[in-house]
TrEMBL record:
Protein name listed in UniProt: RidA family protein
Recorded family membership: Belongs to the RutC family.
A Pfam family assignment: Ribonuc_L-PSP
Domain of life: Bacteria
Alphabetical list of InterPro entries matching this protein: RidA (IPR006056), RutC-like_sf (IPR035959), YjgF/YER057c/UK114 (IPR006175)
Coiled coil residues, start to end: none
CDD domains named among the record's database cross-references: YjgF_YER057c_UK114_family (cd00448)
Amino acid sequence: MKKIIFTDKAPAPIGPYSQAVLTGNTLYTSGQIALHPETGVLIMSDIETETKQVMENMKAVLDAAGMDFNNVIKATIFISDMNDFARINSVYSTYFNEETAPARETVQVACLPKNVNVEISMIAVL
């Protein structure tokens, strides 16, 4: 059985997908980009600010499912330029304890939705 997770504290889906789906004790999130949930404006002044908005959006989705970053077991980071990796990682790492951080991959892609620089999705368990 699956439960659709939705919060107005993260950007609303703009297509046929959910912010996250909980099945059993496992949460699968959709990718988050740096859309401000209240204004719908992309926050892209610099890569650190953009990454922080992505992580805050993800935090809101996890919270809506009764979870937090401690529940995350896997993260996927899609970036448009691998040269931004260290700067993205510097923000991302503030949301996790290094000793218990989730598994992760980071992939450079040709293009992301709305031409953003970073998109992150996660899998979490209760």
